[in-house]
Amino acid sequence: MKYISTRGQAPELTFEEAMLTGLARDGGLYVPAEIPTMTKDEIADLAGKSYEEVAYRVMRPFVGDSFSGDEFRAIIDRAYAVFGHDARAPLVQLNENHYLLELFHGPTLAFKDFAMQLIGQLFQVALKRRNDRVTIVGATSGDTGSAAMEAFKGLDAVDVFILFPDGRVSEVQRRQMTTPQESNVHALALDGDFDDCQAAVKEMFNDFGFRDGVKLAGVNSINIARVLAQVVYYFTSAVSLGAPHRKVSFTVPTGNFGDIFAGFIAKQMGLPIDRLVVATNQNDILHRCLSGQGYHKGETIPSISPSMDIQVSSNFERALYFAYGRDGNAVAQLMDELKSGGGFEVSRGAMEALGEQYDSGRVSEDETLATIKSTLASSGELLCPHSAVGVMVGEAQRDAAIPMITLATAHPAKFPAAVEEASGVHPPLPSRMSDLYERSERMTRVANDLGVLQSHIKEHIAK
Ligand SMILES: *Cc1c(COP(=O)(O)O)cnc(C)c1O
């Protein structure tokens, strides 16, 4: 299995190489050169299997020769053993034809654990075999950083440094980053906002001397291995509702488009998905684009679903690549326009192609709060604000004949202030992490200064 860049100008790579590289050298994102398919019988045969077994069968063709079958099985088992629910991704029913896929039973209570736990183990095995090590540096507004630290802690082939804006993440998010005691993970509280954190990371990647010196690697959501890990729960949930003999639809609270793009891959593989619905908050660039208004950046307005507060949706480039008939030059041109002019128009043909794959909806702050309240009353399910955005759109767009599955992307206890405001209920942490507030914290406050950051990282990587 080969991986090629959405901009068509970077070398073809294996799964392992694409995973360790992250961003392609031409600025594009890696996608599988061909998407493998599963027959109806192969999909039917997933019924009743464990999450790990389904993960193995769905992902195996993408991994190719990079890992042996036994190696890959062991990696999957280690990745998901730390989850707090035996089903890993349980499905609960909200009403007659609307289901919630709970993706928040991992160690940091957000769906990002599904991919991050897996690539932690994949990195460790690949780097050990190469007798190599890397330094992962990432910026986070909360969920990605905590998932990365949790996944990579204690793995001796990797050092992890996560930059977060000092004082601007929720207390649960901060504690999830500052309480792991393993010496290879480092929480850096930067004196600045999230954009400053991202800019600092970008500058480090562009400083080739530093980049090569510390062997910098990235695990943000453009990493193809992360996207592929997320394909699995589309299969487990659809099969539990009767696929391949029955169609299902999905609604996905969306920011960087990684999670919903995994649904697109599942559909290409042969899973009978009727509709893939993108749900956005007030930062609605994707909804505007899918409604035919072009792709134009605006101001990011902070919301109560902060993990979806984006103005440029990085994985949308992959959707465009397929919508433009795999034309890397066309994608490269759009991305140049985005960089120079802050936006672009989508061609009529590509709009039609996008329209065949995706629907969309937008939810205001008030509607988000009202959905948390009404869903608790009607089903007893307490939603996080991101999941509430999904449930509102999913409910509006579902039809009577085809089950709608909405992805619940985080646990309500990760966003207690908004949940309590909406419902009057303070969401408790799951018992397995109820001591989070007592654990001791470890973090370094750093100035927003590239030189200072780089010296800090150099001094603290294992030699
Ligand atoms: C990251 C995140 C999202 C958005 O996912 P994308 O793959 O970026 O579209 C939604 N909800 C939560 C809780 C998240 O952490």
From TrEMBL:
Q: Which GO terms describe its molecular function?
A: pyridoxal phosphate binding; threonine synthase activity
Q: What class of enzyme is it?
A: lyase
Catalytic activity, as annotated: O-phospho-L-homoserine + H2O = L-threonine + phosphate
- In-chain residues carrying the UniProt-annotated modification N6-(pyridoxal phosphate)lysine: K112
Q: Which UniProt keywords apply?
A: Amino-acid biosynthesis, Lyase, Pyridoxal phosphate
SUPFAM superfamilies according to UniProt = Tryptophan synthase beta subunit-like PLP-dependent enzymes
Q: Which residues form the Threonine synthase N-terminal domain?
A: 2-80
Q: Which GO terms describe its biological process?
A: threonine biosynthetic process
Q: Which PANTHER family match?
A: THREONINE SYNTHASE FAMILY MEMBER (PTHR42690), THREONINE SYNTHASE-LIKE 2 (PTHR42690:SF1)
The molecule here is called Threonine synthase
**Organism taxonomic ancestry:** Bacteria, Pseudomonadati, Pseudomonadota, Alphaproteobacteria, Rhodobacterales
